Amino acid sequence: MSNKMERKEPNQLEDTVKSVLKKRSMSLRTLGKRTGIDVASISRMLSGKQKANPDYLQRMAVELGVPSDELFRAAGFDVGRATSADSIDFVRELLNGQRFSKQAIELELTKYEDYARTNEGVNLIVEKFPEKRQQVPGTGPFLDQLDQMFIDFLKSNSDEERSILGSGLLYFVLSTDVIPDYIFPIGYIDDALAIQIARDRFSRFSAR
């Protein structure tokens, strides 16, 4: 199973989205408003006049209440089979390869610690985290930790604590993921690991 999704014809996105909109008694204008996507852009994407944007598809799937892979397939992306076995094999492939490792994530977090000490880094977290967070559907330990980390970041008066917490939040916000976020929930595996690493470091620092 490849982690790079390839687009293939035909595009059945228009029929799929319009069918779901009808079931939800939702207009295209409402969908545009809820997703923050210009209605004209959605229309062009549905008609095939504009290339399907993975980020837009993910946002639309959340608001329409359908699995994201359903829209990706309708748009002509080859996402493979959406089964647990595929997900497990995909994760194993990544974990056994050079593209995805705890060490690589720790290195990125170290870089982000310095950025989190700057006013630019702090402003980026404060402004962009709520927006990115809304794009993640569902509930669970990862999201609970993520939300708590943001709260702790805002409350902390320690530069060291804020740099540690900020590194994890920046990893999430800046989408440096090895696995694309729009392959949910697989796409948030390295985000979850980054958040856990940062939380563990924060706990050790706070216990000093």
Automatic annotation (TrEMBL):
Keyword tRNA processing: no
Source taxon at top rank: Bacteria
SUPFAM superfamilies the record matches: lambda repressor-like DNA-binding domains
Keyword Transmembrane helix assigned: yes
A GO molecular function held by the record: DNA binding
PROSITE patterns reported for this sequence: HTH_CROC1
InterPro entries: Cro/C1-type_HTH, DUF1232, Lambda_DNA-bd_dom_sf
GO (cellular component) term, any one: endomembrane system
Protein name: DUF1232 domain-containing protein
Species for this entry: Alicyclobacillus mengziensis
